[in-house]
Amino acid sequence: MNGHFRSSLWGQMATTTHDEHHGDYAGPKKPRNVDEFGTASHGKIGMWLYIVTDAMMFAGFLLGYALIRARTPDWPHPASILGIGLSTAMTTLLIVSSVTMVIAQAKGEAKDRAGMLKYLGFTIFGGILFLGLQAYEYNHLADAFGMTLSNFTGGHPLFASTFFVVTGFHGLHVLSGVIYLIVIAGRAAAGKYDSGDCNEVEVCGLFWHFVDLVWILVFTFMYLI
Amino acid sequence: MAALTYDEKIKTYIKVAIILAVITVVEVGLTFVPHAEQPMKTIITMAIVALSCSKAFFVAYYYMHLNHEKPWTIWVAASPLCILIYVGALIADTPSRPISIYEAEPARGVVYPTTSGQGDSNEHAEAHAGMSSEKEDTHGAPAQEEVLAEPEEGGEWE
After folding, report:
1. Engineered SS bond to B125: which of A55, A151, B18, B109, CB 3.0-4.6 Å?
2. Which of A51-55, A99-103, A115-119, B28-32 has the lowest mean pLDDT?
3. Mean pLDDT along residues A11-20
């Protein structure tokens, strides 16, 4: 009964797969009959939709943080507990790694594989360095103020809870971004983007810039003010 | 997008990077302006938030290439901004909320006095009443257990 439908569906999928792997690659697939999205590929629109949901999650975190902070008496001033110098260095690091990411994409579009790999390497290095600094920061805060998810000797424990939840989730995003970048760098090294079509690099870059963007806001709300 | 040469792209990226660096320096500098008192506190806080939002815009518009996208992609990308409705509602609702989020449900050991025979836990609770920073600590729990046990001994409740 369902057999015909199913086989035709499988047939379609098989054809698509076949085209992708063996046919001449004609640029990123574009949504058909949707002029409103212009040249944006499926992958790019999908990544944007993911970023939208992720942004709402972080917005929820930051809103919850703001509400807890506004309604809790004797909230410690963040600058007196958290190191502004270290977090400014981390911010600069992420912004610089964003710059190297767009340069890597530009290199790829200029069909410069070695240059793209070099700048992807810088970006990955920046991400790993950021994670290292964050590990050092957590370690230091645990030593100096007994900060864990539920304990804090310098004031209300919710200060530590909100800090670790928000920055921890961002750190996980950096970790996944680094893994994503390593995969993309591997594909670049294999020559997948030699045609100058860097759609996958751009989509990966979208995620990486989003991580940077979120850190800019987290840095402001959790460290500066 | 295709019209741009490699040099043009790099030029834009470096320009934006310099703008971001300058804004970051200004932001961090603003935190060193004394702003413990109220009028300055609001001004500095608002300035820092506005600056960081402009930074986020620069990253999204130039590095995430929204300047090359069609309006629909930009609308999709901007849709999380609808969280601002919630922010506005929360700010408008703020005056009607208690000062502490714990006032709605106070620490039980503080509010319900225990009987005089159980002075140990009573003192314990009172000692903690003054320390607002540790209100939801586990120290309130023993006193509450004894309050709950009271009706069985006295039989006067209800």
Report:
1. B109
2. B28-32
3. 45
Q: What is the mean pLDDT of residues A67-77?
A: 84
Q: Tell me which H or E stretch contains B79.
A: none
**Structural contact between residues A42 and A29, judged by C-beta atoms closer than 8 angstroms:** yes
Please name which of B109, B120, B105 lies closest in space to residue B147, comparing C-alpha atoms. Answer: B109
Mean pLDDT by 10 residues, chain B (158 residues): 78 94 93 84 91 94 89 88 89 72 50 46 45 44 45 42
How far is CA A196 from each of CA A14, A110, B3, rounded to the nearest angstrom?
Answer: 27, 6, 14
Mean pLDDT of A28-57: 80
Answer whether B115 touches A (CB < 8 Å).
no
Q: State the pLDDT at residue B4.
A: 80
A184 close to B12: Cβ distance less than 8 angstroms: no
Per-residue pLDDT band for A219 (boundaries 50, 70, 90) equals very high
How high is the pLDDT of residue B105? 52
Q: Which residue of B has its CA nearest to A36?
A: B72
Residues A45, B71: C-beta atoms closer than 8 Å: no
Among residues B131, B84, B86, B91, which one has the least CA distance to residue B110?
B131
Q: Looking up tokens 């023993």, which residue turns up?
A: B142
B87 interface with A at CB cutoff 8 Å:
yes
- Structure confidence at residue A137 (pLDDT): 94
Q: Residue A209 CB: number of other CB atoms within 10 A? A: 24
**Distance between CA atoms of B32 and A62, rounded to whole angstroms?**
23
Please give the biggest Cα pair distance in chain B: 87
- Provide the CB-side half-sphere exposure for A224 (13 A, CA): 28
Q: Are B133 and A155 in contact (CB under 8 A)?
A: yes
- Residue A43, Cβ density class (10 Å: 0-12 exposed, 13-18 middle, ≥19 buried): middle
What does the alpha-carbon distance between residue A154 and residue A76 come to, in Å, rounded to a whole number? 8
The whole-angstrom separation of Cα B139 and Cα B120 is 12
**Virtual CA dihedral for B84, B28, B18, B61, nearest 10 degrees?**
-10
pTM summary value: 0.75
Closest-CA distance, A206 to chain B, in angstroms, reads: 6
